[in-house]
Amino acid sequence: IDAGIKIGHLIHEHAIDIEVVDYCISCCANYLFTAAVHKTIHDGAMVVWHGNSQQKDFREFDQCNRTTSSFDGMPMDQDEIDALSSPEAQLEWQDRREREQAFFQRIGVNEFIARVGQEPVFVGDFTMTVADMHKFGVTNVSAPSAYASAEHCQTMQTTKPSLACIAVTAAHFDYEQARRRYGEVCAEDGTLLINSTP
Asked: H-type helices in the chain, by residue range?
């Protein structure tokens, strides 16, 4: 994450273009692709998001002490729990989240693009159409006309079976707006729910 943000800043500062010839996944999608001026996705290539430092399972650990992912049900290793629970690690992650938020504000992109395939419904690794990328402020994207369509996604799944092509709707943005406006509360099992009594 830290290296990705630094590279993203350099791409933005120097007005660099990006071409995806095969895969741009995770930090590449979050910070490099979004920061570039002109973004080209070649035929057969894909840009894949799967979360960022703000993602829900991280928030659940920090706010609710939940140590089992609400996404895939996988428990955390005790060494990982101990390491992430230290005061130093907590400060480091808080600083990282602030730097990430500042980065997205600087490049004019809604960081929810990296989480929209996780919240409110988790689908795993995901991509979206050029038109849907634009909804988050990711502009100047050139891609094959069928990129992230149902048919295109079936073809891409031959090389990346876990990939989901999502359609971003108003319901996604309504969820995120409500989450930010009303805040979240911990359920008994440690999952985060939007506060219904603000």
From this structure: 2-13, 27, 34-35, 56-64, 78-85, 87-107, 130-134, 150-156, 170-182
- Give residue for tokens 């092509």: 165
Tell me how far the alpha carbon of residue 152 is from its chain's centroid: 21
Length of the chain: 198
The answer to whether the CB of 34 falls within 8 A of the CB of 138 is yes
Mean pLDDT by 10 residues, the chain (198 residues): 97 98 96 98 95 93 92 89 89 95 98 96 95 98 95 85 93 96 94 85
CA distance 86 to 20: 38
Q: What is the dihedral of CA 136, 127, 121, 69, to 10 degrees?
A: -110
Model pTM score: 0.92
Q: Which amino acid is at 11?
A: I
Distance CA 97, CA 142 (A): 30
Which residues are CB-neighbours of 80 under 8 A, at least 6 positions away?
A: none
Provide the token pair at 4: 């990705």
Amino acid at 3: A
Question: What whole-number distance in Å separates Cα of residue 150 and Cα of residue 194?
Answer: 31
Alpha carbons within 13 angstroms on the beta-carbon side of residue 79 total: 0
